[in-house]
Amino acid sequence: MTQSSIDSLSPPAQSESDGASVDRSVHRMGYRGWSGDLSSGWLRWTVIAVVGIRRAWQSRWLRRMLFFAWLPAAWFGIGFFLWEQATFSPEWRQTLRPILQGMPPTPEFNEIREAVRSGNMESGRHTVWAWLLQSFFRNPQAVLMVMVVGLIAPPLISQDIRSRAFLLYFSRPLTRAEYLLGKLASVWVYLSLISTIPALGLYVLGVLLSPNLSVVAVTWDLPFRIIAASVVLMLPTSVLALCFSSLTQESRYAGFAWFALWILGWFTYGAVTSAEIYNGQQEALRTGQQFVVEESSWTHLSLYHTLGRVQSWVFGFSEFRDIQVSMLILIGITVIALGILIHRISAPMRV
């Protein structure tokens, strides 16, 4: 190796003054100001929310479910199109009649059939739109909600407990409320992507499919009802799912408890109400009266149907006195699960 090559590998000469300044900077133990960008203390929870959102987005199954969440909106959009066309065209009403005859004899469908029979389609417009939006929430989106929450919520807190990430979180100026809000926001973002935003998009699609914009004057309250129904869906379910996650260090146990709650409630309700409907039909045949499907008194065996009952009131198909017990159950579940959740989050701070 030549002398020139050795010189090229040697570090540059450093003056005595430069060495002294470096030495002072290394051994200076006082406070050093933060040179990066500062954010408001009110936004600390967003850091936890962003981490949870990004971690959940890595799942291929979640991305697929978000894609399929928008497909039912196109199907329900056909219902908006058929009704709006039938409002101004008698030929389309003939198409609607056989479809409505196959629907169950519920009070809302009886009102819709009467509107079609009398030709006064304007009187049934709000009912039809509200029923389509309620069905969108209650059937495809509620089932999808169970799968999405069961996929992203179980590891959110259980992994922090197992990895002792609490020690890192609470060594920062972070409160329990901010930590909890960040975790809840991680779930709420995805729930809004499968419920609130598609439902609002479905409403806008219905307006665009209408022959004129006069429909907005009749259905202006439906976007607010969509938001209210989203709160009913998102708040108790997200708190309950995170409660399960906080009770164990294994996310699979939290996921099992979440799915077991919905599946057992669904099948228990279905078994009881099937017998109830059969007895009602037999009684109607014996007395010669028309059998009308009503909300079962066993609704509260199933959290899915309890949510649907409250959402039915939000969209105007039930009286408040009919859903008081369901509302109290949802509030009770939210309060109890939130209490357990806060207790579990506070545990590392008490050690």
Taken in chain order, the helices and strands follow as HHHHHHHHHHHHHHHHH
- Output the structural class: mainly alpha
- Termini separation comes to 62 Å
Helix content: over 70%
What is the number of helical segments per DSSP (H or I, 4+ residues)?
Answer: 17
Q: Return Rg in Å.
A: 29 Å
Give the number of domains: 1
- Main sheet attributes: strand count, strand direction, barrel closure: none
Q: What is the molecular shape?
A: globular
How big a fraction of the residues is strand? under 5%
Query: How much is the average pLDDT?
Result: 78
Low-confidence segments, given as residue ranges, are: 1-27
* Tally of DSSP β-strands: 0
Oligomer: single chain
